[in-house]
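Whiteboard transcription, Tuesday session. T.W. wrote the C-alpha cells on the left side:
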C-alpha cells in the first residue's frame, strides 16, 4: 500500500476524529482543517490547519502536498428542523472544498453524501445531492459514499429498527429500498472511508449501503 497525504475537513467531528486516527495508524500523512483553538480536538499524529471550512481562501494554500481530500463537514445530528443550516453549512462547505480541490489539482476527492431517493429528510437529501452535482461538474476523480444512518456511540436508537429492516429486506417488493436505506455501523463506515482513501477512484465512484457493509466485512477488524 502506498501512503497518501490526506487533507480532511471535519477532522474533529464524529467520523473525522476516528478516521484521522485510523489513517495515521496506517501510515498516511493527515492534515485536518479546524477552527482556531480547536486543535486539541484532533488525534495525535495529525497536523492541524487553522481555517474556516466555509471560506476557501482560509485554507486553500494549506492543502498541498495532499493528494486526497476528504470532505466531512456537516451539521451535527441532522433533523428536518435544520433545513436552513444544511444550506448554510453543508452546501457552502462542500462548495468551498470542491473549488479548493480543483484549484490545487487534488487527485482524489472523498465525499460523504446520503442514500437517496428517500421519503424522509428531504432538505438534507437535496443538499447532499447538490454537493454530488458540484463534484460531478468539477472534473475531479471522486468517491461518493451514501450511508443512510450510521450506528455507533451516541447514535444507537436506530438499533430498534433492525428487525423491521430484516423483514423488509426479505420481501421482494421492499428489498431494494430497504437495502439502499439500510443502517451501517460506525466500523463499516470507517472501513469504507479508509478503502476509498487507499483505493482512489478514476472518475466518479458511488458507494451505496450494501458496499459500505461489505467494506466493513472485508476490513472491519482493522477499522474497529
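and on the right, the sequence the group agreed on:
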Amino acid at each position: 500500500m502506498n501512503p497518501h497525504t490526506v487533507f480532511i475537513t471535519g477532522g474533529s467531528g464524529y467520523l473525522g476524529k476516528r478516521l484521522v486516527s485510523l489513517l495515521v495508524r496506517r501510515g498516511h500523512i493527515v492534515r485536518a482543517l479546524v477552527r482556531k483553538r480547536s486543535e486539541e480536538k484532533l488525534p495525535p499524529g495529525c497536523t492541524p490547519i487553522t481555517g474556516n471550512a466555509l471560506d476557501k481562501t482560509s485554507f486553500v494554500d494549506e492543502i498541498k502536498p495532499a493528494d486526497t481530500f476528504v470532505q466531512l463537514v456537516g451539521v451535527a445530528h441532522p433533523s428536518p428542523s435544520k433545513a436552513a443550516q444544511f444550506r448554510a453549512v453543508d452546501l457552502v462547505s462542500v462548495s468551498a472544498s470542491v473549488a479548493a480541490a480543483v484549484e490545487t489539482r487534488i487527485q482524489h476527492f472523498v465525499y460523504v453524501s446520503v442514500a437517496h431517493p428517500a421519503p424522509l429528510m428531504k432538505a438534507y437529501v437535496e443538499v447532499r445531492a447538490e454537493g454530488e452535482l458540484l463534484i460531478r461538474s468539477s472534473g475531479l476523480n471522486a468517491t461518493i459514499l451514501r450511508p443512510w444512518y450510521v450506528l455507533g456511540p451516541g447514535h444507537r436508537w436506530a438499533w430498534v429498527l433492525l428487525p423491521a429492516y430484516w423483514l423488509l429486506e426479505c420481501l421482494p417488493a421492499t428489498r431494494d429500498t430497504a437495502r439502499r436505506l439500510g443502517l451501517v455501523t460506525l466500523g463499516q463506515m470507517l472501513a469504507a472511508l479508509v478503502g476509498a482513501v487507499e483505493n482512489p477512484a478514476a472518475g466518479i465512484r458511488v458507494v451505496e449501503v450494501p458496499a459500505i457493509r461489505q467494506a466493513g466485512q472485508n476490513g472491519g477488524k482493522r477499522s474497529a
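Someone added at the bottom: The two ends are 19 Å apart (CA to CA).
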